[in-house]
Amino acid sequence: MKQYFNKRYILPGRMLMIILGIVIVIGVANSAFMVDSNADNKEFKQGKGNDSIASVKAFEDVYEVLKSPRCMNCHPAGDVPLQGDDSHLHTMLPKRGKDGHGLYAMKCGNCHQPENTPGLHTPPGNPKWALPPSDMKMVFEGKKPRELALQIMDYNRNGHKNKAKLLEHARDTLVKAGWNMGEGRNPPPLTFKEFVAAWDTWIEKGGYAPK
Amino acid sequence: MENVDNKYSRRAFLKSSTLAGGGLLLSFTCLSGFSSSGKGVDAGTASEWIEINGYIKITPDNIIKILNPNPEFGQNVMTSLPMIVAEELDADWQKVVVEMGPHDSIKLGPQFTGGSNSMRMYWKPLREAGAAARQMLKEAAAQAWSVPVEEITTKAGMLHHEKSGKSGTYGQFSSKAATIPVPKGMKLKDVKSFSVVGNSKKNVEGAKIVSGKPLFGLDYKYEGMLIAMIEHPPAFGMKLKDFDASETLKMPGIKDVFRQKLYEDGFEQAAFDTRTFNDLLVVVGKTTWEVMQARKKLKVTWEPAGETKNTMGGKKEVIVPGELECTARQLEKFKEYAAKPAQQLRKDGDPETAFKNAAQVIERVYTAPFLAHNCMEPMNFFAHVMEDKALVAGPLQVPGFSEPTLAKLINLPADKIEIQMTRMGGGFGLRAYGHYIYEAALISKKLKAPVKLVYTREDDMTYGIYRPMYTTTYRAALDANKNLIALHVKGGGIPEHAVHANRFPAGTIDNYLAEGWRIPSNITIGAFRAPGSNFAASAEQMFLDELAEIMGKDPIDFRLELLKRGKETPVGKNNDYDADRYAGVLKLVKEKSGWNKAGSEKYSRGVAAYFCHNSYVAHVVDMVKRNGQPYVERVFSAADCGVVINPDAAANMVEGAVVDGIGNALYGGLTMNNGEVQQKNFSQYRIIRSNEAPQKIEVNFVQNDIDPTGLGEPPFPPVFGAVASALYKLTGKRLYNYPLINQLNSPDNA
Amino acid sequence: MITLNINKKTYNIDVDPNTPLLWVLRDHINLVGTKYGCGVAQCGACTVHLNGEAVRSCVTKVSRAVGQKVVTIEGLSENNDHPLQKAWLEKDVAQCGYCQAGQIMSAAALLRENKSPTDQDIDNAMSGNICRCGTYLRIKSAILLAAEMQKKEGRKA
Q: For residue A17, what pLDDT is reported?
């Protein structure tokens, strides 16, 4: 039986090495030279200014911002937002709700005002303060760079944003609110201007996902 | 259309009495015209109310008012103490009006909310007051009807004489009754014949609570009242050096900024006159928000206070160290001090030899952090100190503690000071300490104006008077057959230990040693729901649980075995518990929880029991893992507090203590960095929330006719051990440091 | 001068528009049923309804309430007979009572949107309201009872 399997179903060592090599090459090409890394967004395929290396490099900066508490805290893996520079569960456990604005007596806007409340440990504010809605959760928490980039570029997972909408999104007031974090909170690692520049570069150059 | 400005209506604070049945009877007191000599008399309506004795007033149209003597902070005394009077008076509870009494220790007794003492203290006096009033009313009717007093009966506020067919209301005879000498040696009712006591009555202030009526100190209003706040040093061990208030004084609504000393040097402080910060920086303005904003503009320089001295009663001087303390260093000190010789508190047999000869010695060290009381209503007090008299009003547990010091500080005789006690938004022990009353009064005296002192939440949480930080080392000696032959408990704390040397399991083990030590500190501490007991029980019950496991015994059976020994052949003297009653709650909780019976397999179960403040309580805690976190889903409780006055309210007390205990066991704690408290609001100090409370708490009472004892504290301490033991069952790890969640999630515990 | 509509009454108040609604209610209008607990939207004691939403008045500037409808515990019902108020008395919920007005206002927002709340719904609605006395179990049972009453009475919460 053992022999049988060896001969018929298990590839000889040399053959295996060759196939493996091909798979690795495809994998590298996949990440560095597009193929399908931005494939879900047809607009980006074979764009004129595409430059996967510059794009991926820009995304590295973008990723540092997205995984910072200022962005990630409202893009949690669960239905409860995170809080603070240590991204702990929001102390009174408000839930996302269908539209992302909370539930019942625990709506985001019940505490989060149109502007920051002065003082330490007070609710930061923005007129649009909310989580992504329950049918489009746009989770950042726990996502590796490649996963997150692919998610953002995926029209069906990014809140149905085309290229123009994506470019516009970096300028959204709620995104910008990440830099107006209120007293006692650390800002994202890039300035807002640097972030927008990196975001634009990433997308303009093809929206590639790193490997 | 109503135009509102900052002038408060002249009627000042609404003082209302509550009809026990839920109705509302309003009376207004014009506070500006109060008379301090008229203590105990309701100024506005005195002509109607006929005072039978200090606790009972009756109108001619038969409304019966019962004064609650003891301050109410959620323990239900406002309802349950008047129930005792109504019982012996034979009043119709539905027609009884309840009112908070004034501070008047001559007419209304000790007025002490603390130590779970209300029931114990007032059971007999209130029964006697009710019975005496009933007798006086009977005498009055007997005289009016010219019949023998023995032939008169009472029922539901009515007097009857069967033979003549005469009957009348208490109100009809109240003025005559008031002239009859107070009888002595009254025969009280048989407990078994009670009709009010032992039957659940709703909170007499319930309707006011759910409709937002002014009840609490922070709700107190007075014409021309200013708001004051205190800027206190940012850390223990610091003091005010200098300040610049120029920007503050420019802020809208601000009246004054000044320095105020609490106690002058050498002032003899009474036991509850805790001094945390003595040199106060006071900001006074028109409204709360304006003062809060103006405080932010203060430019203050603080400096190390260095070593200071407190002068206590009898000129006893106490040195307060100047160190700016850190939690990590405090924990190191615990280890250093635990290794040093300590004060011996009790010794039975020959523990040294027993440990030397032991086949196995088990040693465990437990620690617990400072806890803040975090009453939902932050500290506050109203004061209006005038030339020749003063009115102070607000939330406080023991007016009698504060009055003598207050009188000295504002230089007025005590009988010229009226203390009004509002409902308290929690107390937990903190409101037994009078500093905020003195501060308010001194500020009012200086300003010559009515003032309400308000602490913000941050002020409240960082101002000291915490549950001490504790540690205890337990050692047990087992012989070769795993019999417990010796026990050694050595506890310490900052600044005091929590060893109760004569409590269980003392008296049940031949060789026993209890020792205690203390580390002085400038962090002030005070009573916190079952002081000392709350940690003593935690450590002791956790140790007994682990010991039972090592000895191969069921944790309840092990305790019952010890109690059997303690009952039959007690070791030593002064054992501070009744072994039968202690065993009683364990047996009851065992039965009610179905301990070791089928049906609870999904739960990790922990049990603990404790006796303190004169009542016995045991809990079984059923824990599960929910969303990866430990969650107490069910609790079974058994309590023995003698006669249960108001059963549903008593159950509420136990439920609340269980929730509070779970919260503090898992999450509670304050830490320090260079003397600065690291938790300043609920964002950092985790309080148990709705979703973390159990789904079910089943409260069972031992039924007996023993004189009632309290319930505010006794159910709290045993929660900790039961939670810790359940958590061990859930995770397979014994934890020894509170708060348990911190230790569970700590990287050291991985 | 700021004009507010509170409990169906109109008030004109001379106050800094940045003042939190809580302190306008308590210090200027003398509606003290709304409580101060933390000042940073952590405890829920200050919960009032702003156009029906259970806002934390300690962090809500009074300017946000201009032209809107504010309801406090004092105005929740005409005769203190909201099903929640009745259920709170029936279950004898309160211990110290300080947080209960805020609890009831939060619960009222829940019952308005969900006529038959489950235990999970109640947790989702109520975990922003701290009760230091630990009356959470009774709060929960009172909400369930109020939902029943509401159905029987056919009343709009």
A: 54
> What is the C-alpha to C-alpha distance for residues B372 and B74, in angstroms, rounded to an integer?
18
- Range list of H helices, B48-116: 77-89, 105-108
Quote the minimal CA–CA distance from C132 to chain B in Å. Answer: 6
- Pair of tokens at residue B313: 């009663």
pLDDT at B28: 32
Q: What is the pLDDT of residue A19?
A: 52
Q: How confident is the model at residue B11 (pLDDT cuts 50, 70, 90)?
A: very low
Look at residue B81 and give its three-state secondary structure.
Answer: helix
Contact criterion met (CB < 8 Å) for A121 and B689: no
Inter-chain residue contact A121 with B680, CB threshold 8 Å: yes
**pLDDT tens digits, A35-90:** 345 545 566 766 678 899 999 999 999 999 999 999 999 999 999 999 999 999 99
C-beta atoms of C41 and A123 within 8 A: yes
Predicted local confidence at residue A48, as pLDDT: 74
Q: Does B686 touch chain A (CB under 8 A)?
A: yes
Contacts with B683 from chain A: Cβ below 8 Å? 91, 121
Question: Of B681, B684, B689, which is closest to A92 when you measure between CB atoms?
Answer: B689
Give yes or no for residue B286 having a pLDDT over 70.
Answer: yes
CA-only gyration radius of chain A, Å: 21
Tell whether A88 lies on the interface with B, counting CB pairs under 8 A: no
Contacts of A29 (CB under 8 A, 6+ apart): A35
Residue A165 CB partners (closer than 8 Å, separation 6+): none
* HSE (side-chain half, CA atoms, 13 Å) at B477: 21
| Res. B15 pLDDT band, cuts 50 70 90 | very low
E strands within B94-176? 96-100, 152-155, 158-161, 166-169
pLDDT digits (tens, 9 = 90+) for B179-190: 999 998 889 999
pLDDT of B41 above 90: no
Q: Angle at which helices B533-550 and B717-731 pack, to 10 degrees?
A: 40
Contact partners, residue B258, CB within 8 Å, separation at least 6: B281, B282, B284, B446
CB distance B129 to B85 below 8 Å: yes
CB B420 within 8 A of CB B392: yes
For residue A107, list chain C residues with Cβ-Cβ distance below 8 A: 53-54
Instruction: State the DSSP string of B21-45.
Output: TS-EEE----GGG--GGGTTS-TTT
pTM of the model: 0.92
CA dihedral sign of residues B270, B271, B273, B274: positive
Q: Over 70: is that where the pLDDT of B17 sits?
A: no
* B neighbours by CB contacts (3+ pairs under 8 Å): A, C
Helix (H, G, I), strand (E, B) or coil at B679: coil
Give the 3-state secondary structure of B257-271. EEEEECCCCCCCECC
> Which residue has tokens 């200086």?
B446
DSSP string, A9-55: TSPPHHHHHHHHHHHHHHHHHHHHS-TTTTTTSGGGTT-TT--HHHH
Min distance A188 CA to chain C CA atoms (Å):
24
Q: Does C28 touch chain A (CB under 8 A)?
A: no
Residue B256 has, within 13 A of its CA and on its CB side, a CA count of 14
The residue that leads in pLDDT, B571 or C157, is B571
- Per the document, the length of chain C is 157
pLDDT value of position B315:
93
* ipTM of the shown complex: 0.98
Separation in Å, CA of A2 to nearest CA in chain C:
56
C-alpha–C-alpha distance, residues B378 and C20, integer Å: 18
Exposure class string for B568-607: b at 16+ Cβ within 10 A, else e: eeebbeebebbbebbbbbbbbbbebbebeeeebeebbbbb
pLDDT bucket at A23, cuts 50 / 70 / 90:
very low
Structure tokens at C107: 């619960």
